[in-house]
Amino acid sequence: MSELKWLKSSYSEASGNACVEIATDGHLIAVRDSKHPELPRASVGREAWARFTGAVAAGRLS
């Protein structure tokens, strides 16, 4: 992936204890822990990301 513009989740804690960031690059969504940006990040396709976020919004994941 090229240089990415990372966006912090609006659901991340203000204290910074639970921070998730995402970035897009074409057909992929990259996800990382903002507290440790040097660690490996996960990348998934847009369709998989949409299914995941839909399941979270619907309360199907706990």
Model description:
The chain has 62 residues and is an alpha+beta fold. 19% of the residues lie in helices and 29% in strands. The protein is built from one helix and four strands, in the order E-E-E-E-H. The protein has a four-stranded antiparallel sheet. Strand 3 and strand 4 (42-45) form a beta hairpin. It is globular. It starts with 6 loop residues before the first strand and ends in a 5-residue tail after the last helix. The mean pLDDT is 86.
Summarize the structure.
The protein has 62 residues and is α+β, with helices and mostly antiparallel strands. 19% of the residues lie in helices and 29% in strands.
Write the layout of secondary structure elements.
Blueprint: E1 7-8, E2 20-25, E3 28-33, E4 42-45, H1 46-57
Antiparallel strand pairs: 1-2, 2-3, 3-4
